[in-house]
Specification:
By secondary structure, the chain is mostly helical. Helix content is 61%, strand content 0%.
Length: 192
Amino acid sequence: MDTPMPAYGGGQPLLHQKGAETQEFGTLKLLPIALAHDTRLYACQRLNRVLADTQVLYSLYKKHHWLMRGATFYALHLMLDKHAEAQLAIVDALAERVQSLGGVAVGDPRHVAELTTVPRPPDGVEPVPVMLSRLLDAHERILVDVRDAVVRLSEVGDEGSADLLVSDVIRTGEAQVWFLAEHLVDTPLVRG
């Protein structure tokens, strides 16, 4: 004889649930953090743009990490993976900042693709210097946007977001640019 399952609990997962959004992207919930609504809304918009670009940069790092070639394969393979890990930490910090402001962080890859300013690379493999140049270009786009965002966010009183951008995005980005750029110096590995 079958025993009916209770309407609640019972250890059975409630699968295939559907529901309406509880907060739309681009809106804010009220949080008592002593920042005006318009300041928080502006900050979320700027941070989400940086977040989208940083998610694409992370993906580029992983792609190029997998596709490295040549005599410096091992060193570049390891470096690009290390850089990707640092970018992933930045992604998380940016998303959590948006959430702490009452916003909704961009997370779906299809939505990220709509917001990013970083150009899409070809699907295949490019020469190593081109892949490194592509990473440098993505960093520069992000750094230009972030430097502007820092100034504007400071002007509207959101020092927390400005500090995150300086401490995490700018400092990490500048160091990674330096490491990447040094691999593009035309110095032969062996003299013939």
